[in-house]
Amino acid sequence: MPSKIDFNVSPYFDDFDEGKKFHRVMYRPAFAVQARELTTQQSITQNQIEKFGDHMFKNGAMVIPGETTVDLDYQAVKLTSFTGTFANFFGSEVTGTTSGITAEVINSVPTDGEDPDTLFVKYKDSGTDNATNFFVEGETLTSTASGGETAVVSTTADGSSVHIAEGTYYINGYFVNVEAQVLILDKYTNTPDYRIGLHIVESFVTSTDDTSLLDNATGSSNSNATGAHRFKIELLLAKLNLATEEDANFVELIRIQNGIINHKVETSQYSILEDTLARRTFDESGDYSVMPFDIDIRESLDNGENNGIYLTDGLTTEGNLTSDDLFAVGMGAGKAYVKGFEVKKIGTQFIDLEKARDFLTDSGSTTRFEQLPFVNITNLHGTPDVGFVSGETEAYKKG
Q1: Residue 200 — very low, low, confident or very high, per pLDDT cuts 50/70/90?
Q2: pLDDT of amino acid 393
Q3: In the chain, is it the N or the C terminus that has fewer CB atoms within a 10 Å radius of its CB?
């Protein structure tokens, strides 16, 4: 799909029209080159690349992995106070003077008015007692930071984050690089509920925004020769609530619910090429499973003893109020090929099923059943009719 940006605006006036079937710009000697002609030349080339890209990849497909990783062991350390420059903690090693624990600081988030200054760490060892695994409340942390920063611990918590490696994605007809990024999902809990993906930001950049665009014909930037503008696409790691459907500028890569990953993009999503491969696979093999999907039937409401799924007064994944009248039916991880397309689940997904609560009572009645090659019975009283009997057989119950 083409970019949503309109390029046919001042001062660019890109009036490329695919319907005119122009495929080259033919420059002529002794005639000045127009900005419009240079812009059209780019649009013709981009149109050709886009057609090839659309044949190969679906919009938003991962071309060169930037793979994503969810970290549910993102250890947070809330601080009461610190000395020096807070940003210097990042990348340093901190040691608890009381516990003796050592940890590497992998992220830091300053206070936002509600949450305190917070360090995110990866613990490297246990304490001096060989039992303590986390920094203790009130202890002082010394660091290897350049300014010799120190901090005082308030509390610790289990946080969650997502990481994406450097790679390339097919976005709106362009092959766009994504930089390695880290996004904190929840600072102090590790049961996040989000749609995680890439937010697409398209913009025009001028020499005012980036002075490297100034004319450097003399070997240095010339502020009097501003030069051409640039069209820029950025891919930023972002999270959305599960209920949102704002997908116009968002490419979903992961869907996580209650800390369980239900969907994750792990391979490139091909377009017409994948349709062709799927057709051939289905023709020769039909539908089949590679790793069967396990079914897990459990109580919906968790009373603390029944291995239920949801807490009281909460909502199920389908938005229903938790109740003892519901079952939770889960489909586990598995992999199959349906119509030639790969269907893969990496986590258990639960749906709601109403329990059978209505019943009828009937006493003193005669049980009738159709005589088949064999019948499995229990608690037999008397002997049923056996022989050359057609139709229904009436069980005899001794009075």
Answers
A1: very high
A2: 53
A3: C
Q: What pTM did the predictor assign?
A: 0.74
Mean pLDDT of 46-57: 93
Sheet strands (E) in 111-223:
118-123, 140-143, 150-164, 167-171, 174-178, 181-186, 194-205
Query: Are the beta carbons of 98 and 136 closer than 8 angstroms?
Result: yes
| Model pLDDT, residue 307 | 83
Helix (H) or strand (E) holding 39: helix 35-56
What residue segments make up the domains of the chain, in order of their start? Answer: 1-56, 68-163, 260-354
101, 118, 122 from 93: Cα distances, Å: 11, 15, 10
Cα separation values, 110 from 101, 115, 228, 315, Å: 23, 8, 39, 33
115-149 burial: b if 16+ Cβ within 10 Å, else e: ebbbbbbebeeebeeeeeebbeeebbbebbbeeeb
- Whole-angstrom Cα distance, residue 247 to residue 211? 33
